[in-house]
Amino acid sequence: MPLVIPPSHHLLLHHHHHHHHQSVTSSLVSGFLITNRIHCTKSCNAASCQISWLVRSLEGKTLVTRIGDGNLTTVIFQALLERLRNKRLVFVGDSLIRGQWVSMVCLVDSILPKTLKSMHSTANASLNIFKAKEYNASIEHYWSPLLVESNSDDPVNHKVVERTVRVKAIEKHAKYWTDADFLVFNTYLWWRRPVMNVLWGSFGDPDGVYKGVEMLRVYEMALRTWSDWLEVHVNRNKTRLFFVSMSPTHERAEEWGAGKGNNCYNETDMIAEEGYWGKGSDPKMMRVVENVLYDLKERGLNVQMLNITQLSEYRKEGHPSIYRKQWNSLTQEQIANPKSYADCIHWCLPGVPDVWNELLYAYIFYQ
Fold this sequence. Notes:
Number of helices: 8
Low-confidence stretches: 1-18, 42-46, 69-75
Order of helices and strands: EEEEEHEHEEEEEHEEEHEHEHHH
Distance between the termini: 19 Å
Strand content: 15-25%
Structural class: alpha/beta
């Protein structure tokens, strides 16, 4: 099952024939009665779960009903916007969390009239802000692919030869998001190299010290800087914190038993093998995250992990592939060999990030 969240009061129905499993939860949320029924046929594969939502106002008016059909898109818009009234929801991280932000914006955008919404960017285009004016709610994305400062922090020009991370510095970024009501972080993809170039000191400082350090150790240092900042600066009575686990890639078809040298190009169905795990997903890195989150919890700050890795592993057909945006015109070699330019990292929308947001809603609603 992709989500099991204990609501404030609930009734649970279990049916255990043919591996069927159904749970029904009802809870009162900021003036709405939300009933959420999850019906699963296999174990923990998102596509095998039908999730249906019923949202009623207390006067008994049905606002939203939706029966899940494996393609988890439109959910509880009014109720979500109501929950975000006068609040900021900020997604912080790289292009994968940006995809999750776009998914969230598209989901609520559909119910808002044109005059009651706006999109703008600030902070040198690092911060993109979608506003639902009637609710005074904002859904934002802040670009910082390594969470701490790095030489890849420019939202447009971040392709650099030698990636360098200022492992002790986060304030330049954090000042834009610290006071948000909901913060959703990720950082994973940009760390995928054996050694990271680390800078102690600031960019352009003659006294700065550069050193290559084993990646996993640098990842931990950066997450400690991030968690120390949260511990000291986040208002615990106001801000709710989430961390999205790593997003799987599908760049080596031999991992799922297809032809060597291929990738997600031309893939049209899911991976059927239960518990499939690609080599691109590094459990050691998520262990580092878990340890850092555990230490924060010991110090009284709760960060909820959104565990999206396994349910996304199956979705080799969910990437943009050759239909990605092309920044430069394709060469003749590329045109002759389409898989050479297929994007097997990011996700199509509507698609997989909508499922991630469905998990996020569930946590936002069932406090």
